[in-house]
Structure formats: structure tokens, C-alpha cells
Amino acid sequence: MRSPAHIGAARLALGTVQFGLPYGVANTHGQVNSEQAHAMLRAARDAGIDTLDTAIAYGEAEELLGCIGVAGFRLISKIPALREHVGAVDDWVLALVESSLKRLRVPRLGGLMLHAPDDLLGPHGAELARGMQRARDAGMTELIGLSVYCPKQLASLNGRLPLEIVQIPANVFDRRFADTGWLDRLAADGVEVHVRSAFLQGLLLMPSDSVPSKFAPYRQLIDGWHAWLTGEARGTLPVQACLGHVASYPGINRIVVGADSLAQLQEIIAATALTPLRAPESLASPATPLINPSQWSTL
Question: Which of 170, 195, 248, 268 is most open to solvent, judged by the fewest CB atoms within 10 Å of its CB?
Fold first, then answer.
């Protein structure tokens, strides 16, 4: 299914985990160095990308961004998992956000999310939610919300924190938030939705014969993806197909994309000239070990 409009680079958000950590199953370059990061931010700005996605847990990413300069970008960051013995939890949240602002050298975040949202279900959940709201009310962030992993988790957390921004995984294999109606619900509630894992950490961009052997149990699905690319979607590059599929859902505000080099980012930006293209339903998979990279170590 194609839509008439191009995806547009402005619908992207540049993920910066690679700026602080060597990240991704297909990453052969390691952590992005300062020179490359500077060039990538310049390319993103020139293309019309106005949002950067980062997190306290992304190693040196926030500090590097602050050193380079992020003028003109909207910054989205995340609070890490709640540690024991942090004292007053809401004060802990404010202290973390203040430290992030100092590292990033910005007066305010565009959005602040919980990286481990299940902490809201714990004994300090109410304090954690209060800390997030205090950060917003103090002008330290425009929006507050959650980075979640599955619809069931989002449902369990609904009402624990005012949801103004949410980050979810979605790609040609993972359509859970659309299929369960959550995408439509979030859009109806005016929640800003950001999607990560459009490339499934690079797995969807790898040539078929380069896919690690541990994914053998899902070989039929992976082969189906490559068969579609060379058949019905012939002439469409994998990066174009990945972005085109996610962009075909109107409830998605930003697609968070990561790159481990300037050339890779330029390829992603070029791919946004394609019109959105929905991949066939036969590629949707509920196989959690495949669509959740945090479980890949068990394969």
C-alpha cells in the first residue's frame, strides 16, 4: 500500500546511541567518533531533521552532543532504571535531568521518557511519576512519557503517568502496536509517538547471506522479506522499504534512526524521498525473540 506523499527527512529523529556506545548487530564501525558525529549532525540539520534521540544510558552520547553543539535541535532523553538507595526518588529524577541539561548544554528538553517504565509499578512508582511531572512543571522538559517494549506493558502502565510522548518499536516484522489498536488510541489522545527499531538494529538491512546463523529459526520469515524486496518491491532498497513501511502508519510522528557513519546517515536521508509503502501482512511476526533485540542473546 502506497501513500501519495514522500516520507520526508523531517519525519525522522536521529538516534544517538552510536555516539556513546558501539551498538547494532550490523555495526562494523564501532562507536561514532567526534568528527563523524559532528558531520552527521550537520547532515541531519541540512536535511531538515530537527529531533535528536538520546539517553543517560547511552554512554558518552549526551556529553558528545553538548560538546559538538545542538542548536536548532529538539532533544529527547530518557531517565535510566531506578537504582536502590537514591534517596527521595522525585529529587533523584530532577537531579538526573539537571545533569543531562548540563551535559547537553541546553536549557530544556523537548521530551523526557522513562527508559525502564516498569519502575512505575514498583514501590516508588508514585514518586517517580511525581519527579517526571516536577521536571516538566519546572520547565526542564516540554513533554513527559515512556519508552515501552510491547502493548501489554503500555496497557499495564496506562494512567501511572500523564502520557504526552511515547516511544515504541515497530518494523516490517513487528506490528503489535498497530494491530492492537494502540497506535490509533495514542493518536486520538494527542500523544506524540516516536518509533524505534525500524531497521531491527540493522538486521533488516543485511544481505540474506550475512544474517547471523542464530537467526536460523526465523529463516523463513527473513527469506520472505528478501523475496518481497526482489519481487513485488523490486527496485526498492532495504532501507527505503523499512522506512516506507513504518511511515505508512499515520499515527507515527517521528521515526528514530541510528547510523554508525556519515555515509549510512546520508543513505537513510536519501531513502526518505520514497513514498510510504506498507509491507505485506505475511511478514508480521509475534515471535518475541526475533522482534525484541534484548532477547537476541538467548538465540
Answer: 248
